[in-house]
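Kindly inspect both lines:
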Amino acid sequence: MKKIVVAHSPDADDIFMYMAIKFGWVGEFAYENIALDIQSLNEKALQNIYDVSAISFGLYPLIASEYALLRTAVSFGEGYGPKLIKKKGVSLKRNFKVALSGANTTNALIFRMRYPEARIVYKNFLEIEGAVLSGEVDAGVLIHESILEFDESLCVEAEIWDIWCDFAPDLPLPLGGMALRRSLPLTNAIKIEKDLTKAVLIADHNRKILASMLMQRNLIRVDEQKLDVYLNLYANKNSISMSEIQLEAVDKLFALGYEHKFYDKLIHAKDHLIPLEYEQARYEDLN
């Protein structure tokens, strides 16, 4: 069987959506997985390293020539998302120093549109809260499970969701997606997307069983109650396959990035999806 390397983040939603393949419940290929923080995943995607990779939607226009955009295993915020946190009682100056999880993350793109004068440093997402607590930075944007609980001496300065709504009212916030290398044969690409879609569907339909298995194997950084909350936010029925409104939201993100000169050209999500109709046309030709 052909080996396909799938890279994803170590946060609960990515692990949850991938594990149906890891446990052998679905898959036509010999899948191998690797877990890296989102900054590393984005950097590896820029280098065209992995066959399939979780990415920030904010990165995609920079890799569109090398990677197709998958419809599945997506995470959107709807009334929630990353949080800009600071110490209580601190007033942030216009050029405050802030820790972000990566230069090409969606939250970094939206943050830079709202706070163009902020001085940015990039850190592993697990180090951001500590950097704020130590005073190394004035503020930081928390992502993944970190948004659920943080030190009581900290408070939320702004929700990335609220900033997004100022730019794109009535649209969900596109956070994380999946991309597949264009060098893979199209027939394989279609099968891989189907495998991943089925894995996310199985995970959503068997949430309690799979969540229990992940907890028993110590693959999750939060307790059972927080895991349930987190999965309800980022790994749910809306993660199985992108809807029209989700695609519209991704296009809005790309348009905002282009307007703010983060990208050198404007692209549209639908133009970069794997053409599933190819499979039907191919078999019709055979018949």
Summary: Residues 83-167 form a domain with the D-Maltodextrin-Binding Protein; domain 2 fold (CATH 3.40.190.10).
